[in-house]
Amino acid sequence: MAGSLEGKAILVTGGGSGIGRATSLLLAKQGAKVMIADYVPEGAQKTVAMIREAGGTADCLVADVSVTKQVEMMVAKTVETYGRIDGAFNNAGIEGKMAGTIDTSEENFDRTIAINLKGVWLCMKYEIPQMLKQGGGVIVNTASIAGLVGFEGLPAYNASKHGVVGLTKTAALEFAQKNIRVNCVCPGVIQTPMVARLMDGGGMNENDMRAGEPVGRFGQPQEIGEGVVWLLSDASSFVTGHSMVIDGGWIAR
Amino acid sequence: MAGLLENKVVLVTGGGSGIGRATSLLLAKQGAKVMIADYVPESAERTVKLIKDAGGNANCIAADVSIPKQVEAMVAKTVEVYGRLDGAFNNAGIEGKMADTVEYPEEIFDRIMAINLKGVWLCMRAEIPQMLKTGGGAIVNTASGAGLVGVPMLSAYNASKHGVVGLTKTAALEYAQKNIRVNCVCPGLINTPMVARMIDSGGMNEQDSVAAEPVRRMGRPEEIGEGVVWLLSDAASFVTGHSMSIDGGYVAQ
């Protein structure tokens, strides 16, 4: 029985771990051909191996989304491999180092913005023209609940994720009549290597985070993946410019 | 192959027309047993017939959601017929009259609040205790883009729909650790009898309204239904307290 994304070519950035990996597996399970991009090659290769072992179609490449030429190459390579790009999950992101607004270093600020915010813009800058050539496409960007509310000690991360929400709405409006939908997901606290790093002496308190989640638990990366799959599918045909919050109720408070 | 909501018992208010009817059909297609409630009995019966003709399972009951005793009877009947309640789509709503804030007739203001806002609260008040008995459930309320932004000439409708967003978040937080998820959908301009009435009354200009939609078309009621089906399913297991906009980009502007 055909999956909800049968035969679609989907590019996933940051597909080598966490939410990117879990989503890539779900996309492949729904019949998509997945191109996994990551700046850690082994992570991307492992995701591909997992997909192929489950009978799916996937390939990978190394790319740093903050480098224009690498983003350009990533999109070109996806088209070369699969002939087209039907969807993209612009998910690559870093947490940076936790430090307050006045303490955070300039390089931490710049690096976080370069990957999390400029990287999303660069990805769309090269994906959208390809999608226009094909008559349409769908994009999901990874924002965060930190794109909607504040988090102490993460000024650059917050700023970058608020920015992703803004980029999402703008691109959605610009291409609304060109059959390209653009949405973002806003994950809550999800059990990923990124969150593990923040909690293992990274400055984030696990108990505070758990207490902050009304459902009393962290989310699983697949729970974000389910939302991404839905947003990339035709079931969400009238959804664009939306920030889909998958957070166990965090921001409802 | 099992549907997303196989054997789940789902109650739909306002299931006799528009979004309620389209969603009921989709729910039944995904294997749910659907109880259709509406204060226009013939329309609810018609929805049941459409579902049964397609091989699905449905029943109906006449109910005005602004009347506590009728809401209680509606939930009791659902449990009597199907044995339990797994999901609810609290969708019954009216548009009232179009007039500016100063001119708005008091009786119509009160009627809109009674159905659109108090009705949603009354429904949850009856549904949640039943869901607690069986260990959990999922609720989707129908809010609107008018629950997030302002719409001239619809002050009471706006207020009621903003209120639904608030009720949704509060209930979500209260029952987050009781395995009950509560979300709402915020439809944009959808091709339904409600919208047709507003256009025919002269209060809404069809061309202007469509032009205000970034995607330059009305949504189909099924496009809202798809979101409701997803939110009621286990795929949305980490989504609660969320207002899902299905509006062709309307609130992204």
Helix and strand string of chain B, N-terminal first? EHEHEHEHEHEHHHE
The low-pLDDT segments of chain A are none
Percentage of residues in DSSP E strands of chain B: 15-25%
Quaternary structure classification? heterodimer
Q: Strands of the largest sheet of chain A, in order across it?
A: 3-2-1-4-5-6-7
Q: Percent range for helical residues of chain A?
A: 40-55%
Q: How many helices of chain A?
A: 8
Q: Identify the CATH class of chain B.
A: Alpha Beta
Task: For the record, give the distance between the C-alpha atoms at the N and C termini of chain A, rounded to a whole number.
Answer: 41 Å
Q: What would you give as the CATH superfamily of chain A?
A: NAD(P)-binding Rossmann-like Domain
Rg result of chain B: 17 Å
Strand content of chain A: 15-25%
Largest sheet of chain B: 7 strands, parallel
Individual helix count of chain B: 8
Rough outline of chain B: globular
Q: Strand order, main sheet of chain B: write it out.
A: 3-2-1-4-5-6-7
Computed structural class of chain B? alpha/beta
